[in-house]
Specification:
The chain is of the alpha+beta class. Helix content is about 45%, strand content about 15%. It contains 21 helices and 18 strands. The chain is globular. The two termini are about 30 Å apart.
Length: about 625
C-alpha cells in the first residue's frame, strides 16, 4: 500500500510539473527579426557568445505560438556590443525548435529545453542592435550578478578571473571553451558548477567565522547560542548565493540539502545523516521530478551519501586520533575528494562517456585550494568591499584560481588523460544504485549481498550492445559499426550527431577520422554500405531523387535525405518523411531481417503528437520498436 501510494504521488507530481512548465515550442524553421529582453548570457560549445531572451516577438508569428524564451548564438565578433541582463535587443536570426535525441535512448535536449521553457534555439550573423537599456527595476539579481562579475574581472586578469567569477556568481560568459575543455578533461568541471561542494565550502566558512568569531566576545558567548546564530547567518548566505548564481537545478539541490542540515542544527538534531539526505531528495523531487534523470542530481546525492557513510566509518579511527589538529581540515578536504570521486565516477562515466584517468590526482591537488582559499576569499571580499579593501582577498582568490587552471591544463595535457567509455545499457545505473543503497542501509553480513547487483551492473556495462547502423534524423549522416570503430558516411555535416554517436560508442575519434574508416564506399552523395546480408545506399545532396530509381532497382536498403512522393514499387526506402515521423533510427541485423528501433515512441508533452509512418519491408521479419525516450 505504501509503495502504491508513493508511486501515485510520484506520477502526480511529474504530471503537475510537466503541465506547469508547458510553453510554446517553435514548430517550423524561422528566419527573420527577433526582438526580446536579455535574461542570460553565456557561451556555446563553439565559444560563441550566447544570449537567452524572454518577452520574445517574432515577425508574423502570433503570441500564442511564440516561444517564451529563445537562445541565440552570436556568430562573429561584435565589439560594439556590451550585453547586459534587462536590455531589449533586436536582431535577425535563424531559429528552430530544440532537437530531440540523436539516437534512440540518447540524451534528449528537447526534453531539457522543455523544462527550461526554452522554445527555440538558433544563431545570428547580423549585428545585435540595442533598442532599450535595462529598466532600473528590471532583473535586479541578474544585473547584480553582472556587476559583481565585471568588478571581479577588473581586479583579476584573464581566465583566472573568469574562473573565479564563474564559481562565485555563476556568470561563465568570460570563460573560453579551451578552459572549459581542460576542466572537463581533468575532472575539475564540477568546480565551476555551483553545486553541493561550492555551497558547502561557502556556508561552512561563514558558519565557522560567525560561530568562533562570536565566541571571542564573552558578553555574547555567555548569553547567545552562537552555534544557532551562525547557522541562521550561514543559511541566509546560502540563500543569497542561490539567488545570485541563478538558482539552477544543481544549486537548488545544494541549497535544499544545506537548508536541511542547518535546520537540523537549529533543532538540536544531528545534521549530517542519511535521513537529512532523504528529506532533501524528497523535497527536490516533489518540486522538480525531472531532475531524477539528470547527471547532476545523481552525482550530487551519490557523493553526499558516500561522504556521510565514509566519514561515519572513519569516526574515531586511528587516523583521526593520530593526526595533528591543525592537519585535520586538510585531511578532510583531501579525503572528501577521494570519497566523492569514487562515488561519482560511475555516474559521470555513464552520462559523459569518459573517465578521467588522473581526475583523482587533479581533485586532490585543487579541491583543498577551492575550499581553503577561493570560497573563503570570496566571502571575505564581500565583507570588505564596502571599505574598499576587496582587492586583498581577490588577490588570494586569483592565486588560487591560477593554481587550479594550471593543474587543469597540466592534467588534461597528459597522455591518456581521458579514457572513452561506451554507453551503458538501461539497467546498469539502476542495478548499481540499488546495490550501493543495499550495502549502505543494511547491517551485518546481509549487507554484502548488495555487491552482487553492482558486479552484475558492471558486467552488463562491458557487454553493452551498440547499434550496427545509425541513421540521423535528416538522413544526411549514417554511422556503421566496423572492426575498428564506427565509420561515418560523411566527413563534415551533422557534427553534433556524429560527436554523440562516437562518444556513446566509447570512441575518441573525431568525425574526419571516423569518416576515413572502411565501411562506406562511393562518391559523396551516393555512399554504399553493407549491413548483414543486405546492401544499402545513402543518397544526399543535389540529384538524390534522380538516383533513387537505380538505387531501388538493386534491391537493397535506400536511405534518402529527401521527401519521396512516389517511390518505385518494392523499394526498401527510408526517406525524410519517414525520419521526421520516427526520429533517428538504430538498426541491428538479425537472422530473419533487421531490428529497427525508432527514437519517437508516441506522444510526449515535450515532443508533440506522434505521426504515423511505415518502415520498409527489409526481409521476412522487420521488428520496429520504440526507444524508452
Amino acid at each position: 500500500m505504501m509503495w502504491s501510494t508513493k508511486s501515485t504521488l510520484d506520477w502526480l507530481a511529474a504530471g503537475i510539473r510537466a503541465h506547469a512548465v508547458d510553453a510554446p515550442m517553435l514548430t517550423f524553421r524561422y528566419y527573420g527579426p527577433v526582438e526580446g529582453r536579455i535574461i542570460h548570457i553565456d557561451r556555446s560549445q563553439s565559444d560563441a557568445l550566447r544570449l537567452t531572451l524572454d518577452r520574445v516577438t517574432l515577425r508574423e508569428v502570433s503570441p500564442d505560438r511564440t516561444p517564451l524564451r529563445v537562445r541565440i548564438s552570436l556568430q562573429g565578433e561584435q565589439p560594439w556590443l556590451s550585453p547586459a541582463p534587462g536590455q531589449v535587443v533586436i536582431l535577425t536570426a535563424s531559429l528552430a525548435a530544440p532537437e530531440g535525441p540523436v539516437e534512440p535512448g540518447g540524451f534528449d535536449f528537447r526534453r531539457m529545453a522543455f523544462f527550461d521553457r526554452l522554445g527555440a534555439v538558433g544563431y545570428t550573423r547580423t549585428p545585435v542592435l540595442l533598442l532599450e537599456e535595462a529598466e532600473a527595476t528590471a532583473l535586479p539579481i541578474d544585473r547584480l550578478r553582472r556587476y559583481l562579475t565585471e568588478g571581479m574581472l577588473q581586479h583579476m586578469d584573464g581566465q583566472a578571473g573568469a574562473f573565479a567569477a564563474g564559481a562565485m556568481t555563476g556568470d561563465r560568459s568570460a570563460i573560453t571553451e579551451d578552459t572549459v575543455q581542460a576542466l572537463r578533461d581533468s575532472s575539475l568541471a564540477h568546480l565551476l558548477a555551483i553545486s553541493g561542494m561550492n555551497m558547502a565550502f561557502l556556508t561552512a566558512f561563514v558558519f565557522a567565522l560567525f560561530r568562533y568569531g562570536l565566541a571571542l566576545v564573552p558578553y555574547i558567548a555567555l548569553r547567545v547560542n552562537t552555534k544557532k546564530v551562525a547557522a541562521v547567518v550561514a543559511l541566509g548566505v546560502a540563500a543569497f548565493y542561490l539567488v545570485l548564481s541563478g538558482a539552477n537545478v544543481a544549486t537548488e539541490r545544494a541549497f535544499i540539502m544545506i537548508a536541511v542540515f542547518l535546520g537540523a542544527v537549529l533543532l538540536d538534531r544531528r545534521a549530517l545523516t542519511l535521513r537529512s539526505v532523504a528529506v532533501a531528495g524528497i523535497i527536490l523531487l516533489l518540486a522538480k521530478p525531472e531532475s531524477l534523470m539528470e547527471p547532476g542530481f545523481q552525482m550530487s546525492f551519490a557523493a553526499t551519501i558516500a561522504l556521510i557513510v565514509g566519514f561515519a566509518a572513519l569516526d574515531g579511527s586511528i587516523y583521526r586520533q593520530r593526526l595533528p589538529r591543525w592537519l585535520m581540515p586538510v585531511f578532510t578536504l583531501v579525503l572528501s575528494s577521494v570519497i566523492g570521486g569514487f562515488a561519482t565516477a560511475p555516474y559521470a562515466a555513464a552520462h559523459f562517456n569518459r573517465f578521467t584517468d588522473y581526475g583523482l590526482l587533479a581533485n586532490v591537488l585543487t579541491v583543498p585550494i577551492m575550499g581553503a582559499v577561493i570560497m573563503p576569499a570570496g566571502a571575505v571580499a564581500a565583507l570588505l568591499a564596502p571599505l574598499g579593501l576587496a582587492w586583498l582577498p581577490l588577490w588570494f582568490m586569483e592565486l588560487g584560481a591560477r593554481w587550479i587552471l594550471f593543474i587543469a591544463h597540466w592534467i588534461a595535457g597528459l597522455e591518456g588523460a581521458v579514457t572513452a567509455i561506451p554507453e551503458p545499457g538501461h539497467w546498469v545505473l539502476p542495478l548499481l544504485t540499488l546495490g550501493a543503497i543495499w550495502v549502505i542501509l543494511w547491517r551485518e553480513r546481509v549487507r554484502w549481498l548488495g555487491v552482487l547487483p553492482v558486479v552484475v551492473a558492471f558486467g552488463l556495462w562491458t557487454q553493452a550492445e551498440r547499434p550496427l547502423l545509425l541513421v540521423s534524423g535528416d538522413g544526411k549522416l549514417l554511422g556503421l559499426e566496423v572492426s575498428d570503430g564506427r565509420a561515418l558516411s560523411v566527413a563534415r555535416g551533422g557534427g553534433f550527431a556524429a560527436e554523440s554517436w562516437l562518444e556513446n560508442d566509447g570512441d575518441l575519434a573525431d568525425q574526419a577520422r571516423a569518416a576515413a574508416r572502411d565501411g562506406f564506399s562511393g562518391p559523396r552523395g551516393e555512399r554504399r554500405f553493407q549491413i548483414g546480408t543486405l546492401e544499402g545506399v545513402a543518397l544526399t545532396g543535389k540529384g538524390a531523387l534522380d538516383k533513387l530509381a537505380p538505387a531501388c532497382a538493386s534491391g537493397g536498403l535506400v536511405v534518402i535525405a529527401e521527401v519521396v512522393e512516389d517511390a518505385p514499387d518494392g523499394c526498401r526506402l527510408i526517406d525524410l518523411a519517414t525520419l521526421r515521423a520516427t526520429g533517428p533510427l538504430a538498426v541491428w541485423p538479425e537472422e530473419e531481417g533487421l531490428r529497427i528501433v525508432t527514437t519517437k515512441n508516441g506522444e510526449r508533452i515535450w515532443s508533440g503528437p506522434a505521426r504515423g509512418y511505415a518502415l520498409p519491408d527489409l526481409g521476412p521479419v522487420t521488428k520496429a520498436l520504440a526507444s524508452d525516450q
